[in-house]
Amino acid sequence: MYSIDALARWEHSRLGVVSPGIFIPLAEKTDLIIPLGEWVLNRACADAKALFGQIFRRMSVNVSVSQILHRGFIGVLSQSIENSGLEPAALELEVTETVFAEDLEKIRAVLTAVRRLGLSVAIDDFGTGYSSLAYLGSLPVDTLKIDAVFVRNFDRGGEAIIGAALAVAKKLRIEAIVEGIETSDSLDKIRRLGATKVQGYLFARPMPVTTLMSWHSEFIEPLARHMGHGADRLSSPI
Questions:
Q1: Full domain range(s) for residue 106
Q2: I need a labelling partner for 200 at 20 to 30 A (CA). Which of 40, 147, 190, 237 fits?
Q3: Are 143 and 175 in contact (CB under 8 A)?
Q4: In terms of Cα–Cα distance, which of 237, 238, 182, 235 is closest to 211?
Q5: Plot region of 141 (φ>0 → left; ψ -120 to 50 → alpha; else → beta)
């Protein structure tokens, strides 16, 4: 079974598709990230409820530090799950490692509440900013997503960093996913390091939810037959 990521895209009538790298920082600066984040959670839960079954096991949704620290966040999250009828275990919240620069006691309390609801928690883009491996043992984290930059720089120190992160995650019993797999060569290298879960454009590029099932039948099912049981450990961004 496979995991998918919920990604926000803005199709502007005049500007065309606006990158989240542009509108998310603007939303955070203007506090629009709170209603926008609530809308994303509601939509992700509803889509996940409609999609999940024998194929997809988990939907991952990014949340900002501003959302996490907002006093109504747990209530919004709980309501989104309840309204959709989604099983909480089918939803994972992804936070970037910028949480390490905030009040860790507050962050820990919120993430603990998230897990009490039955969700899992992932650290996204790990290794490029505020990271400290020491924090992983103190925060309630289920998944570590190792940033794609280390795959792109595999022969310039990336291999060692990925290997170390995989080893630490295994020791802490945290699931590790290597991001940024775009070629078969990269996949082979990462698998030799012991990675069992990966994601990247080799498997899928962002797509509308309406095309997800046809993508699965056209791409993943043949891949699964080719790779055998190992294919069920792939995580792809949608």
A1: 2-237
A2: 40
A3: yes
A4: 238
A5: beta
Two structure tokens written together for 115:
């897990």
Task: State what percent of residues in the chain have pLDDT above 90.
Answer: 56
DSSP letter (8 states) at residue 130:
S
- Nearest CA to 116 out of 143, 137, 90, 89 is that of 89
More reliable by pLDDT, 132 or 76: 76
Q: How far is CA 102 from CA 92, 96, 123, 130, 174, in A?
A: 21, 11, 14, 10, 22
What single letter denotes the amino acid at residue 208? P
| Residue 183 structure tokens | 């070629």
Number of domains in the chain: 1
Domain of residue 126, CATH code = 3.20.20.450
Rounded to 10 deg, the angle between the 20-29 and 33-51 helix axes is: 130
Per DSSP (E only), the strands in the chain are 2-6, 10-12, 16-18, 56-62, 91-96, 120-126, 143-146, 175-178, 235-237
pTM for this model (two decimals): 0.86
